[in-house]
Design brief:
mainly alpha; 14 helices; 3% strand; flat
């Protein structure tokens, strides 16, 4: 190698020769192991996607299709034997939004959720914290006892509580009468809160288990460090436990919002016992009556789509509300 070549290769002030060229970066090929892992992952995910599309997306798309059509009948006054479907556009949605009973049902479940959901979440949180406290005894028994109502189907639970609400056979009404209280759990002013009691009794234990599972994932070193620093039990709950179970609290609240808008079994079962419960008591009950009593499947489909949209708006709105401060802190 000539002296001029070495001088060009070695920069001024450098003690080592510079590389004559840089290796080009080529895209790394996937190994056989990575490809096999990708195929295995797809094999696990595809069955779920197939069931999700079949049981959720397909019925939702069919309901949206039905909501855009109407049934037309031939003959005098539409009483002919032949009928066919015709495109209706947004007429079914306009009819649903102009129905006073349907809108009143929405207002009723929103009021129901505004009172029942916070009460249930607070009660589930308190039970979870008590069962996960250091001095708790009989945890397994009480955890099973609190979760047991969730194992009772909603229809059976409504029947059981119906016997406790009906005057004449209810021991609760008899006890209240003996104390001088005139109680009617199924009156127009109290039947909504009687249903709220059934829902709270049934789902508090389920939400409690979700919160306990989140508490189990909290490292024990945090509690130990807090005790060393002199933190009281209440300070541990306020500054460690509750902030760290926030994802579980958000999850249970979203599930509760969706479940509230789908309220159906409890008013349906109690309807023969309470004259205050009519076919428009909840949006779900109104859609059911439209489809199977009024024989208007297209109108019921429009109401179902509206119900799904409201559930999505409220759920994502709540997630944005509780997630905003966290994003700002980050």
């Amino acid at each position: 190698m000539s002296r001029d070549t070495v001088r060009r290769a070695v920069p001024a002030g450098s003690g080592r020769p510079a590389p004559s060229h840089r290796p080009s970066r080529r895209p790394r090929r996937r190994t056989r192991t990575e490809a096999r892992n990708a195929r295995a992952a797809a094999g696990f995910v595809l069955p779920f996607l197939a069931v999700f599309a079949l049981c959720f997306l397909a019925p939702l798309a069919y309901a949206a299709y039905q909501s855009l059509h109407r049934t037309e009948r031939t003959g005098p006054l539409g009483l002919g034997g032949r009928q066919h479907e015709a495109f209706a556009g947004l007429d079914n949605y306009a009819q649903a939004l102009s129905d006073g009973r349907f809108l009143a049902g929405f207002g009723r479940v929103l009021l129901f959720g505004a009172v029942q959901i916070p009460l249930m979440i607070v009660l589930a949180t308190a039970l979870a914290l008590l069962l996960e406290s250091a001095g708790a005894r009989g945890v397994t028994f009480f955890r099973s006892a609190f979760f047991l109502p969730y194992g009772v189907p909603g229809v059976i639970a409504s029947i059981l509580w119906g016997f406790l609400y009906v005057p004449g056979i209810s021991p609760l009404v008899k006890i209240a009468g003996a104390l001088g209280w005139d109680v009617d759990f199924l009156s127009r002013g109290t039947v909504l809160w009687a249903i709220a009691n059934i829902v709270t009794w049934q789902f508090t234990g389920y939400n409690m288990l979700v919160l306990i599972a989140q508490l189990k994932s909290v490292p024990g070193e945090l509690y130990e460090a807090a005790r060393i620093d002199g933190a009281t039990a209440w300070q541990v709950v306020r500054h460690i436990k509750i902030p760290l179970i926030r994802p579980a609290l958000v999850l249970t609240t979203v599930f509760s919002i969706i479940g509230t808008l789908q309220l159906f079994a409890e008013p349906m079962v109690l309807r023969p016992l309470a004259s205050a419960i009519d076919s428009g008591f909840t949006p779900n009950l109104h859609a059911y009556s439209q489809a199977f009593v009024g024989n208007d499947q297209h109108g019921a489909a429009a109401e179902a789509v509206l119900l799904a949209l409201v559930a999505c708006v409220l759920s994502f709105g709540f997630l944005r509300l509780v997630g905003g401060p966290a994003r700002e802190r980050r």
